[in-house]
Specification:
This protein is an all-alpha fold and about 90 residues long. It has four helices and no strands. Helix 1 crosses helix 3.
């Protein structure tokens, strides 16, 4: 029998179940979290998405999932794709 690990808790939520059901963004249009380009409009859109993340109780789980799955685009866990790459490079030995 396999025991639960901290990694399991981060990906599924400490209370069990799917953390995505607790996400603040679950009822928002997905395009809010996938800005196109790097211009001023895309930066404003990314900042809006990050404000959702900042108030979300499962922000940590979302970021862990994005890093674990290697998702390359969009805002997840309060970080955009460039920020996640930088974060992953700092924490990966």
């Amino acid at each position: 029998m396999r025991t639960r690990s901290l990694h399991d808790d981060v990906l599924t939520g400490a209370r069990g179940g799917d953390w995505r059901q607790l996400s603040r963004c679950r009822d928002e249009p997905p395009d809010v979290f996938f800005p196109i380009g790097h211009g001023p409009a895309a930066k404003r859109q990314a900042e809006r998405a990050k404000r959702f993340c900042a108030e979300c109780e499962v922000q940590r789980q979302c970021l862990a999932w994005a890093l674990h799955t290697g998702i390359a685009d969009g805002v997840f866990g309060g970080l955009d794709e460039d920020e996640r790459r930088t974060f992953a490079a700092r924490v990966t030995p």
